[in-house]
C-alpha cells in the first residue's frame, strides 16, 4: 500500500524531494521517448495518409461533428469512447493523439484516415487496453455504416496541449472544418488521484497538484466553449445508468440509439466504480486538501472520500 505524508511533497525531507525530482525526470524522459517514436512513425505516415484521404474522401462528406475529450487520464473516458465507438455512425480512435498530428501539419482528411486506421487496428486486437476489453459484441467498433461522427480519445495529452496552447479548440475547429464537440468525463477525484498515484508511481500530493492543475485548464475551456458543444459525463453515472447516459450522449451528437445498441453496450459496463482510493493511505490533511479542491469547481460538487 502506498503511504504519503503531508510534508512528503514538495516540502518534506531532502530524500523525498530528491525522489520526486527523479520521478519527474523519468516521466519527462519517457514522454520524450514516446513523442520521438510517434513523430518518426507519423513522418512515415504522411504520404499513405494523404493517399488514403483521397481514396476515402467520399466517406467524409457525411461527417457532422468532430469529437474530442477534455478530461483527466484514468477518468473512465476510455469506456465512454468505446461505447460511442460501437455506434454504426461513429468512429473514435483510442489515443491516436489527433491534436499532435494536427500540429505537425497533417490536414483534416489525413487525420480522419489515420483515425479510421487506428480504430480498425484497435478493434482487431479486441479493443483491449491494460487488463480490460472494451469490445462491444454485435456492434460496430472498427467499422461503420455511415460516418457522421469522427474523433479521438486522448484526454491527458489533450490537457497538456491545452496548457501549451489555450486557443487550441479554435485551431481544432479551423482544421477539421466541421463543428467540434467536447466530452468531459469526470470520476470521483479521490479515485482519479489515487489511480494517477499508483500508475505514475509518484507521491500522492504530486498527483493532487497534477489533478487540480489539469481541472483548472478544463474549467477555463468550458467557460469559453458554447454549452451546445460541451457535455459532461460522470463515470459513476454511466456505470449506474449506462442506457440513460448513452441516450444523452447520442442526443448530444444528433444520433439515434437503437435498443440493440444500448443493450449490447450496457452489457460490458462494470457493475460498480473501481474505488482505488481505498488502495492508498490518506492522511486527514491530504483528504482535506482534496475536499478544498473539490469546493473550487462546481462540476466536482457532490464528490467526497466517502461518496
Describe the structure concisely.
Helices cover 55% and strands 11% of the residues. It is an alpha/beta fold and 307 residues long.
Query: Under CATH, the topology is which?
Result: Rossmann fold
**CATH architecture type:** 3-Layer(aba) Sandwich
User: What's the overall average pLDDT, rounded?
Assistant: 88
- The top-level CATH class is Alpha Beta
Approximately what portion of the residues adopt beta-strand conformation? 5-15%
Spans of at least 5 consecutive residues with low confidence = 1-17
What sequence of helices (H) and strands (E) makes up the elements?
Answer: EHEHEHHEEEHHEHHEHHHEH
Number of domains: 1
Side by side, the strands of the main sheet go 3-6-2-7-8
Helix content percent band: 55-70%
Task: Tell me, briefly, the overall form.
Answer: globular
Rg over CA atoms = 20 Å
Question: Would you count the extended β strands for me?
Answer: 9
N-C termini distance: 21 Å
Structural class: alpha/beta
- Biggest pleated-sheet summary: 5 strands, parallel
The CATH homologous superfamily is termed P-loop containing nucleotide triphosphate hydrolases
Supply the number of helical segments. Answer: 12
